[in-house]
Amino acid sequence: MADDERNSGAAAEASPLSDLATAVPDGQLRLAYQPILSLDTLQVVGVEALIRWQHPARGLVPPAEFIPVAEHSGLIVDIGAWVLLEACRQAAAWAELNPGAHELHMSVNVSARQMAPASGLVEAVQNALTQSGLDPSMLGVEVTESALTNDPEAALRVVNELKELNIQVAVDDFGTGGSTWDDLSRFPVDALKIDRSFVSGLGGSDDDAMVVRSIIDLAKDLGILTIAEGIETRGQLAALQGYGCGYGQGYLWSPGRPAADLGPTLFQSAADSGRR
Questions:
Q1: Mean pLDDT of all residues in 92-114
Q2: CB 125: neighbour CB atoms within 10 A?
Q3: CATH, residue 184
């Protein structure tokens, strides 16, 4: 490979990193929020905060393109702290302005890098709660299976510290990492989130249905909640309700939307939208 080709490749890799390094200070990051509903009542009980990058030249950059860069570089620690603070501020604002949102739960994704003891996740959560004034019981973090199982002893310490703050901890994308009852039983988690890849197969795949039922049964054995991701059809909803899944989110009700597009109207009409 010629030197100019090597230099061109290096520049292409460096550009996203250098751009991303300025995304937080330059105010380019945005949050969207996807409602989470009770599958019993079809009422909104919470939202998941979803990050977006509004690049000044490239436009809206999908998370799949920049999150791996942030993870690899370590920028995810600062980005994650920003997400926590912004999400907590929004939840506190909704609680103050909308009586129907006073118990609205805010969920924030946490990466494996953030779960490292030296990354300061617990301190970032404490700072977000202090600055926003949000009741800790209204905040939850979503952690992937791999973040718990790669270094279980370190992860357990972080989870215990988070629980001491009175926030909820959910295992995100559950079913994709091969965790067992023994792996999970040592962690004081509050919920398992069923990965969308299994939900999408409901009604067409016996294997996916078996996995979903097994996850729900496991959660019941552990005494914790289940939240299904990626619900898009009434058939998937009916199957999950039949299996006893407690909560869900997906395009059946709403994609991730800016805070300005959410409010009392959405919260009040969520049950009706699920029956259409």
A1: 84
A2: 25
A3: 3.20.20.450
